[in-house]
Write a structure and sequence with these properties.
With 488 residues, the protein is α/β, with parallel strands linked by helices. The protein has 16 helices and 23 strands. 33% of the residues lie in helices and 22% in strands.
Length: 488
């Protein structure tokens, strides 16, 4: 694409060294840039891309998108915010693919990944192709393998490129997770969403957003972007629902769902079983019974959200039921990786998320068995949730093991101390500390009997552990299989 076309689209406040060069790609990483790409000088939390522009030039950058003039003799587009303008650049370069797609965005603290996968299944059951973009990567169909993703919602160039790939694959429906970071950092700017889903809002990411009000406003941006005729699917049982509805344009179709409060789509007569959950779904004059291979009340809410998307897109409740009843759990989301004792791996890393999975696990715990939870909290993240998670775990479990979960630059022992501060009593018979997560899983085995239910929370699908000076391979699911297959 010629530079002149990009200039026409993003309208920089100044252009230096203009030459109408042919742009072959977009990069914001000087280590991986290719020849004839435009380098975007992004400012991150720890590094400033402007400091690497010279390196990018030496490796083949043919133009720069920058917030200030640089002493480099190639075309430079000067803008107020490269973080915002990269989204304009990416959408232009990939020819605004979302304008030709039925794009569905799912946002909320918990449930995004599961809801996105359920939506994909529903579309496919109705005979329509649907691609998925999210935490686990992206895939063109539910039967495909995931392609790697670095963020829940990719940076704008990767996101627009992926949407472009999907469109060229003759797929017109796309469901994507939309994180609060993505909304705040303009990654989804220029994405034309037809449907937006709100799962819930509980404490998370306050290291970034500082306050819950800021966190809410970031999520609300997705709903403010909806236009006449678009759809908003909103959890009516969440305390932020009424406030969120105020942000939605009056000409947008709103579908509320819930269990407690009167909603458009409701789950009634809920029954939890060892192999899943059953409930009656009430929508207008229809009432159909669903039997799912998913566990916990949170699964009921996730299903209601996906039902809302299906109904808003003209898919019948009967077809939706067929799709959900054949769906198994998503990787790392209440994933049962072993029985006798039952071992559950889950991504829960927030107070609300931990409480949800522990309550669901308690439903599966035999009367003579114990519920034991192994968990930690991430380093360089919101530290105020640590004591809250400790308190929740102690209240809901018979025994807890506190360990590490991506400590990053923080001292693992300090993180553990923060968690322990939320406990009312540190009883050495019920509270155990082991910073090494591998050894903690071994301890979990030693503490358990075949009647117990064991929950490993925090990492879920992740296959790594981020330490102070390196990232190592670590998968809770692999570790469980390895440790529990060993002879004592």
């Amino acid at each position: 694409m010629n530079l002149s076309k990009i200039i026409e689209s993003i309208k920089p406040k100044e252009v230096l060294n203009f030459k109408d060069v042919d742009i072959k790609g977009i990069s914001y990483n000087s280590k991986t840039i290719n020849s004839h790409e435009i380098f975007v000088c992004l400012k991150g939390e720890h590094v400033d891309g402007h400091d690497f522009a010279q390196n990018a030039f030496e490796k083949g950058a043919i133009a720069l998108l920058t917030e200030k003039p640089l002493n480099i003799e190639i075309p430079q587009l000067i803008v107020t915010s490269t973080q915002e303008s990269i989204a304009d650049l990416a959408a232009t370069f990939y020819h605004h693919p979302s304008q030709e797609l039925n794009l569905i965005g799912v946002t909320g603290t918990n449930g995004k990944t599961t809801v996105a996968h359920l939506v994909q299944k529903i579309f496919e059951q109705s005979g329509k192709k649907c691609a998925l973009i999210g935490t686990l990567g992206y895939k063109l169909s539910s039967s495909d393998d995931y392609l790697e993703a670095k963020h829940t919602t990719p940076q704008a160039p990767e996101l627009q490129r992926t949407l472009h790939t999907i469109l060229n694959s003759d797929i017109l429906n796309v469901v994507t997770e939309v994180s609060s970071h993505a909304l705040e950092q303009h990654r989804v700017k220029n994405c034309k969403f037809q449907t937006a889903v709100f799962t819930n809002l509980t404490q998370d990411h306050l290291d970034y957003h500082i306050t819950m009000e800021n966190y809410f406003k970031a999520k609300a941006k997705l709903f403010k972007s909806l236009k006449s005729g678009n759809n908003a699917i909103i959890n009516n049982d969440d305390k932020y629902s009424k406030k969120l509805i105020e942000y939605v344009n009056k000409s947008v179709n709103i579908y509320t769902y819930g269990v407690k409060n009167k909603s458009d789509i409701m789950a009634k007569n809920i029954e939890f079983m060892s192999d899943g959950v059953s409930f009656d779904c009430q929508y207008k004059d229809e009432c159909i019974n669903f039997k799912l291979h998913l566990n916990g009340m949170f699964s009921v809410y996730n299903c209601l959200a996906s039902i809302g998307v299906g109904l808003a897109n003209g898919i019948s409740l009967e077809v939706i039921k067929e799709a959900l009843q054949i769906t198994k759990s998503v990787a790392g989301r209440f994933e049962i990786v072993q029985t006798n004792p039952m071992v559950i791996v889950d991504y829960a890393h927030t107070p609300d998320g931990l409480e949800n999975i522990l309550r669901a696990a308690r439903e599966l715990t035999p009367k003579k068995g114990n519920l034991i939870c192994l968990f930690g909290c991430g380093g360089n993240r919101d530290c105020t949730k640590r004591p809250k998670m400790g308190k929740i775990a102690q209240q809901l479990c018979d025994k807890i093991i506190i360990t590490s979960d991506n400590p990053r630059q923080e001292d693992p022992q300090q993180i553990i101390t923060d968690i322990l501060s939320g406990l009312s009593l540190i009883n050495p018979k019920t509270v155990f500390v082991e910073p090494d997560r591998h050894l903690a899983i071994k301890l979990l085995k030693d503490l358990s009997t075949e009647n117990d239910v064991l929950v490993l929370a925090g990492k879920g699908h992740e296959t790594y552990q981020i330490l102070k000076d390196k990232t190592i391979h670590f998968d809770d699911r692999e570790e469980v299989v390895k440790v529990f297959s060993e002879n004592n």
